[in-house]
Amino acid sequence: MNAPLPAPAPAAAPADLVSRRVAGHSLEAPFYVSDEFFRLDIEAVFARSWIFAAAEAELPEPGDYITVDIGPYSVIAVRDDDENVRAFHNVCRHRGARILNDERGSVGNIVCGYHHWTYGVDGTLLHAESQAPGFDPSCFGLRAVHARTVAGLVFLCLAPEPPADFDEFASTVEPYLAPHNLPRAKVAAQTDLVEHANWKLTMENNRECYHCAGHPELQRCYFPLYNFTEDEVPPALRTTFARFRRADAEARATYESLGLPYAAVEELDTRPTGFRIEREPLDMAGESFTYDGTAAVKRLLADFPTARLGHLGLHLQPNAWFHVAADHAVLFSVVPLAADRTLVRTTWLVHADAEEGTDYDLDTLTGVWATTNEQDAVFVARAQRGIGSPAYVPGPYSPTESQVEDFVNWYVSRLKAHLETDVTAERKAERKADRTAELEER
Hints:
Elements: H1 14-19, H2 30-33, H3 35-46, E1 51-55, E2 64-70, E3 73-79, E4 85-89, E5 104-106, E6 110-111, E7 118-119, E8 125-127, E9 144-150, E10 153-157, H4 166-177, E11 185-195, H5 199-206, H6 216-219, H7 238-258, E12 265-267, E13 275-280, E14 311-316, E15 320-324, E16 329-338, E17 341-351, H8 362-387, H9 402-441
Antiparallel strand pairs: 1-10, 2-3, 2-5, 3-4, 4-9, 6-7, 7-8, 9-10, 11-17, 12-13, 13-14, 14-15, 15-16, 16-17
Helix pairs in contact: 3-9, 5-9
């Protein structure tokens, strides 16, 4: 007879749940199902970290913009007249109206549709009708949001003081990404999928291949050996592992001959801007994420002498992962919508001059990852439903789920830092109130 499940732990405050987190195990249910944790995740993680927002290819010309919604925040990312990407809070400085209401578009100036306050694409206030004498437009420009671009990828940070390690992250990953010429690519396709699960389940699912038997299409071209050591490879994957060893030796020789960096750099839970990057082979033809591994796009992203370059994989905490092959790139971003709903946006980039129908077939280009996304949506929805049961008790991660542990460690450390900052601020406020009361008594 099976032993009875332990009784669910009593309700606890977020700080208590964070402090009692058991390493090597999944999180307790409130982390995934409670609205309180959803709000905390926005405040402590998404409003304080560098977030992947878009490809530069989504903003090809001055005046092109996208809007990004993160919890209660809305941000405009726009290409300015000097062709730099800038970002601003999507809030009019007059009476707070939402300014741009479309997901994307192009503007000459940024005009609020309520009272027509008009801003330049550099955020300066250009026109505000019928103001009092002495009104100074320079005091009412759009509130800026930190924006950085790295090798064609756009990152935003909502915090007044963003994590200071971004330069180190950028200098590490840019040499890997730069050969693929992503700033000069174009968007071939973009899809939005709402997963009925907490955003952390979406990210955890991405950080392991323990479930990859559920992705037969992906496994045709992608070696499903994520985090396996040679001793841990199960019997069913021994033939695949032997094939991987041969492909890996060939790929390393190619990378070295072309001067392409490929070694893994893994700092997933050791810094505020946690990341992992590595170049490695693909299976079958070894060229791309297609059903037979051949290139999906005839026109490669850059002037590579071969399409057989495997893929460059980049993981970024808290909300993104990327796969870049010789012929195209696939970018994934995650945005929390509610405690149990998450937006997964997938963007396919190809060479700017590649033509659909001539250089690539859209279904071939998107097929593997579109199918994989749908399968993952089913998996994480099942996880969400199970965690919502009173019978759920956190379970142990397998050794191949080490990057899930890294993600959860990183996430918990962000919450701890935020909660400790709040406690410190609260204590300072209490001491100030005590001193004020003492002075008043005197």
